[in-house]
Amino acid sequence: MLLTLTYRGENSQDLGYLLHKNPHRAQQFELAWGKAYVFYPEVSNESTTAAMLLDIDPIVLATGAESVIDLGCGEGRLTAMLLEEKQIKAVAACDVSVSVLEKAVSRLKTDSMPEYRRKKLTLLQASLIYRDKRFSGYDCACVVEVIEHIEPM
Q1: Which residues have a Cβ under 8 Å from the Cβ of 14 and sit 6 or more positions away?
Q2: What's this model's pTM, rounded to 2 decimal places?
Q3: Where are the beta strands (DSSP E) in 19-148?
Q4: What is the DSSP letter of 108?
């Protein structure tokens, strides 16, 4: 996730000092769930932009969870990682696109997957913009790099 904040005005370089971060060097911080990077793509007296990039580890976020639903699973990259975690007993992979789910099945090699892992996996074709009872009951929900297409009103 990338968050930017731009201040345009007199003495805009003071934004870095207000945020307690030196605008002339990038900084990295270790967090319990990943890393944060703070940097300034633009620094001048007229305009300063502060940026924070969060590198979130979804596996660490799911730590302690026994069941996880990967909403917008795409081709199954995160789903594959979740299936490898021993403490996770159930993984649901959900995507709106049937063709993308077929790619996930191919990537996950479900036809040659060990039985214990296959029992952990549930594939769901559904959209995040509608309520779906199949989404309930999971300890953790992951929504990573998902863009839902919503029709204009």
Answers
A1: none
A2: 0.59
A3: 27-31, 34-43, 47-56, 67-71, 90-95, 121-125, 140-142
A4: H
Beta strands in the chain (DSSP E): 2-8, 27-31, 34-43, 47-56, 67-71, 90-95, 121-125, 140-142
93/91 Cα distance (integer angstroms) = 7
How confident is the chain (153 residues) per 10-residue block, as mean pLDDT? 85 75 83 80 88 77 80 92 88 94 94 93 90 90 71 55
Residue type, 133: K
Axis crossing angle, helix 98-108 with helix 77-84, rounded to the nearest 10: 40
